[in-house]
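Pair request: fold both.
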Amino acid sequence: MALVDGGWEELREQLALLSGRSSVVVDVGPTVHQYSHTGLLHLSDEVLVLILRLLDPVSLLRVGSTCRTLFRVCSCCSLWSRLLQASFGVSFTTATISISAKHSFRLLFMWRTLYTNLHCNRSLQEKLFTERPPPKYWVQWLVLEERVPLPPVRLPDCEIEKLWGIGRESLEGKCREEAEDGDGNVLKMEWKELFNLNVQHHGSVANILQYVLHQQEENDHRDLEALYQQYTQFRFQWHFSYWLFKQPKPFDRQLRMIFLQWQGHSKQKVSGWGSPICNLKYLASLHHITLDYWRGKLANGDENAGIRTVENYFSMCKSLVAWILGQNWGRFKRRKVYLDTLEGVHRMLKKELHTSVIDHKQFWQVAKVQMARVCKLEETAVNYVNWRMIDAVPYYRLYMVSGCAVYLEHIKVFLRRKRLIHDWIFQEENTWVRRLLSEDLYLLLQFDTKISEGNLHGDSLSAHLSRIIWLYLHSGQQLYMEAVKGFVQHSAQARLGYCVLVSVSPGFYSPSVN
């Protein structure tokens, strides 16, 4: 089942809103005809149909929602008959089916979408599995499928003839058993056998589709529409939950370990792994790829293609974990290499992830490049303290993206400037400054204090000092270093003046200030 030029995601959304009888359209009224030149709506219906035949279902629905005239033309039977043929292989003929081609397309699209995703759709499973046999409405749809995960169908000859038009002579010699109520006997058939019998009787799958549509034209489709809308709303959560928790036991344990490997997470929130109370959204937020999938951003919003990308991503994670554990590294370095590599992989492939499926090989190729760059950054930083401190520096991310050695030199210079600030405040002549300076300002001057972009905002003294230090670290201009010294000394003198004021003002503040 393939649509012209794709567009399943948008078609799914539009069909969820489209009723079988009408659609919401924008009535532009007579204002269109106020223009003197000839426009699209001045063309005859025949010419419009010839133009609209070039459109895929998504575009056809879009055009039909603009005004009443185009809605009428876009509902033309010939347009949707072509799409039925292209998407489902059905040669639509009004001689055998009284419902419109557009409505037929909608019904088939909803059913095929739901049945294709039956494995993760608990609501539809309840409809099909709770009764044996299922209600006749669903049985008619099920006969369109060659493989049905249900016990053999047990129905009297007359019911089979009414549902699928198969004559009793075609059922001769088939397995029979006594009915549960003891009244006559029923035919027992596997669903695949029933499907093949239908193909033999009707001549082709396309003819079966036409017959089922003819039988369904008088039925109430509210259950199908409700299930489809529910699936449209929750499909990403359902697919993610099924993939994460419905794996075979050995693989399930391995997947859980890889999913949480070196990721900072709340043990309380993940303790319900696989249970109904588990916080799925929290689990999805632990990885960029799963969070994108949860939001419907992978593979153009196609849930099945997106979940394949997620599978390939964690297959790459498995290879990455195995490689890292094989190195003689400490826990902190392993965690840092792993998380920075995953961050780099997502950053490099983000645009491509949103439009196509990324396989394991492509993930792993990018991961090896990113991992080599992370290790090079670790060598440049010399030790773990420096490494942890520079990951917020823009040069760090630029090197991860480009691999350009120039950014490594910038990182080395950044660390040297950080050391100069540290050495200055710890000079003997600045002992009085260290004693008087407030704790938050004093910490900013120490070498191992990490200054991130989030510290630069606000009107507090620490925010002002952070901005000056940030300018010096990234520019190297001496005037900013002098500004740091002046700001720190002024802050210490102001604190000294406050202490003196307190000591000579009895009754203002009784406790002594050190």
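--- second member of the pair ---
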Amino acid sequence: MARAQGAGLLTPARPAAPVPAAGRRTVLAALAAGLAAAACDDRTGPDPGPAPTPGPRAAPSDPPTTAPAVVRPRRSLLETTFAETGRFHPVEVVAPGFVLASATRVGAAEERHPADLPAPFVGVEAEVEAGNGSGSGSGEVTVGLASADGRTALRARLDLDAGEVSLELVAGGSGSGDRPVVLGRSGVRLPDGPFTLGLALCENRATVLVRPRRGAWRALLTARDEVAARIDFRVPATLAGLGFVWGGRAVRSARGGLFGMTGLRDPHLVQHADGTPYTEGGRVFLTWTCAGTGFFQQAHWGVFALDPENPVAMEQVAQIYVRRDGLLLGDHAGQLVRDGERWLVASSSWGDFDGSGVHVRHATSTADLLHGVHVLETEPLALPTDLDAWDPSLTRIDGTWTWAYVASPSQSPFDFHPALARADGADPFRRLRAVGADRTRHQTEGTLLVRDTDRWLVLASDGDARQYPAYDLSLRRVGRIDAPYGTNIPHPQAIVRADGTWLIVTFDGTDRFADTLGYGGHGDVVVLTERPRRP
């Protein structure tokens, strides 16, 4: 969970107070008080520039539907000791592989490139020659979004001579006519050499960022409430008319596309109905919550391909959004299950979270959800509880659909625990009955169904005890995973590698932007592998 965003604008001169790493309980105390509203990051090599990529509407391929041979682990997960062997923190304003428009020659005059935007999770970048000081005569650089008639626009403007950046919005019909409203302005110390200027739109939050040629992104200006009071980019009709804009004599190239992430969390293995990992070319797939430029509404869901022998080379292959209640949202923290010729989809309704409740939603699809961009229609899942719920995990075990999930009896103060249910019938989404719940836990989430050597386990993450508890299929505690426990509430996604050894992929609470964007932009991807045993 995350701290509320206050009304108004965050700037470097007004940093947000740091959020303790303890996670959701600390954060939701702030919500109760009143809710007002890397491998990829630290680039050490030259920026590849705006390489062209297929658009998100590319025709899907037909995925294989047969499960590979089952690999059993050499030893029980609960008899294995783990050590951290890898860590990285992806940050991408424009997600690699999801560029929708690009230009290698940019003039002083602003130019517009039409785009088909599936959801309000968008990034624009301009590669700028230099910005080391006033009086350079380099003029102004702009990046942003705009409609063809100019009545709707969101722009970042950078005055290279004055060393000043501004964020402005045009929202025709909002009471200001078609005049730009300046949402914020700040002086900025620009990098001495070439750099990248970026603008990210995540939900209704706009953020201006800058990145040196060899360095990490940092946020300069951000605004959400100022934007949401005038326009709602989640409305399909509003988003439909927008295209990318950029311009400036100092710009040598530019690109626009779908927003990537400020970190990753909530890993969940993509699997067949029986729990077997879904693989292609030796790679498994995981869904991750792609952290955005702020709170949970600014996050969205992505699919990533991972080679278990080289986890740090993980690649994003799909973006998934939802359309519900007339809005385009970034619901996340869920699972994809392949059942015959269809995908079963379960996710959590974080996309419009305002402190008043969360529930699990579901859908089925015959599209290739592991590649490209998808907007799904979902509906509430009738879990056998009157509590709030999230983090769904679904597997057909011995012919019966089993659900693990998180139940929350209170969000003021915040209280949540693991729960288990089963379906009475062939439909995984109907006639669900309660099996059990561990109500002794009060900050435990990340429920995962994992096949051990000779039994199924329900794994979770206990933020109070700082450990990974394990349960049987009656939700009785049977042990814990002997593994490092980081900050926040990391989810212990366990994977069996081809040689029968275990791999755990998880995350922590590392947030590169907490000082300016507040809580929600975490975390590091953390890789845990079996610790070698002494002879």
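Observation on the second member. Residues 1-66, 132-136 have pLDDT under 50 and may be disordered.
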